[in-house]
Specification:
alpha/beta, D-Maltodextrin-Binding Protein, domain 2, 3 domains, 10-stranded mixed beta sheet
C-alpha cells in the first residue's frame, strides 16, 4: 500500500472534499481521484460516497483513518529520527487552542520556543474549547489547549496552567466590590457561547451552588472574549472572564473586578492529545516544552 495513497485518503477524509484535498496537497483533482480509486481497488471497498457535491466517508473509511494516520506518522517518524541528528528542529507546528490560551498564553510560549528553534513555523487555530476537542478527536489537529474537560472519545487531558475566573463590569455599573453568587440571578449577565470552556466552567460553579444558567438574567451571548469585554465596558452587564484576559483593563480601571464571596472560581487548562496517536518528534518536543514552562 503506497504512502501517497494514504496521504491523499487522509486529506480527503479530513476535508470531505476532493477539491480541498487537491489544494492542500498541491495535486490536480484527477490525480487525487486516481489515488482514491487505486486505494479502493486495493482494499476492495468503497471509501467515499459521492452525493452531488458532497463527499461522505463510508464505514470502511472511518475504520481505516486511524490506521492510515498511524502509518503516515510512523513514516514521518523516520524522517524525524533522521532530523534529530541535525543541529535544529524544523517544520510546521499546527496547534489548536481555546480563546484564552490561544490569545493570552500561546503567543509568549511559541515566541520563546521559536527563539530556540528559529526554523519552526507555528500556526495557531483559535476556537472554542468544544471545537478544538472535536478537531483533535477527528484527527484534524494533533495537539490542542483548552479551558475545560469535555466529554469526548479517545481524548487525553494533561494538566497545564492554572487560571481563575472573575466577575467584571464597567466601573459605572459595578456598584459593589463583592457579592454572593446568588446575587448574580438579579444582575444583567453577559455570557460566552455554549462551546466555550469559560462558560462550561462557570456553569459547573453555578451548579455546585444550586443554580443553573436559566436562573440568570442573560442579556447577551458573544462568541469571543474580546466581544464580552467590550460589551462589559459599555455597561451592558456583568461578565465572567479569565483574569488573564482583563489584566490590562483592571490595571487601567477600564473594568472593575467584583469579588464573588462564597465560591472558588479557579480552573485548569489542559493540553489535549488523541490517545491513539503517537506524537511526531516536533510535536513531542513542543509538548514537553509546554510542561517545562508552566
Amino acid at each position: 500500500m503506497d504512502i501517497h495513497h494514504l496521504r491523499v485518503f487522509a486529506s480527503v477524509f479530513k476535508n470531505k472534499s476532493f477539491s480541498k484535498a487537491s489544494a492542500e496537497l498541491h495535486l490536480s483533482q484527477p490525480t487525487v481521484s486516481d489515488h482514491i480509486k487505486t486505494l479502493e481497488e486495493e482494499l476492495r471497498c468503497r471509501l467515499f460516497d459521492r452525493l452531488s457535491r458532497e463527499i461522505i466517508p463510508t464505514n470502511e473509511a472511518f475504520l481505516l483513518i486511524g490506521k492510515a494516520l498511524e502509518v503516515i506518522e510512523k513514516f514521518e517518524g523516520i524522517k524525524d529520527l533522521l532530523s534529530e541528528l541535525g543541529e535544529d528542529l524544523t517544520g510546521h507546528l499546527m496547534i489548536g487552542a481555546s480563546t484564552i490560551p490561544g490569545t493570552y498564553i500561546l503567543p509568549e510560549l511559541t515566541a520563546s520556543f521559536q527563539r530556540e528553534h528559529p526554523s519552526v513555523f507555528f500556526e495557531i487555530i483559535v476556537s472554542d474549547s468544544q471545537r478544538i476537542v472535536d478537531k483533535v478527536s477527528e484527527h484534524d489537529l494533533i495537539i490542542g489547549i483548552v479551558g475545560a474537560k469535555l466529554e469526548a472519545r479517545h481524548i487525553q487531558y494533561t494538566a497545564f496552567l492554572d487560571d481563575e475566573l472573575i466577575a467584571i463590569g464597567a466601573p459605572k455599573i459595578a456598584e459593589y466590590s463583592s457579592i454572593h453568587i446568588g446575587d448574580l440571578t438579579e444582575i444583567p449577565m453577559i455570557m460566552r457561547e455554549q462551546g466555550s470552556g469559560t462558560r462550561r466552567e462557570f456553569e459547573k460553579i453555578l451548579e455546585g451552588a444550586g443554580f443553573d444558567i436559566h436562573h440568570l438574567s442573560v442579556v447577551g451571548i458573544f462568541g469571543s472574549t474580546d466581544a464580552v469585554k467590550q460589551a462589559a465596558k459599555e455597561g451592558m452587564g456583568i461578565a465572567i472572564v479569565s483574569r488573564r484576559s482583563v489584566r490590562d483593563e483592571l490595571k487601567c480601571n477600564i473594568l472593575k473586578e467584583i469579588k464573588i464571596k462564597d465560591v472558588d472560581m479557579k480552573r485548569q487548562f489542559y493540553i489535549i492529545t488523541h490517545m491513539k496517536r503517537t506524537l511526531p518528534h516536533l510535536y513531542k518536543t513542543f509538548f514537553e516544552y509546554l510542561l517545562l514552562h508552566q
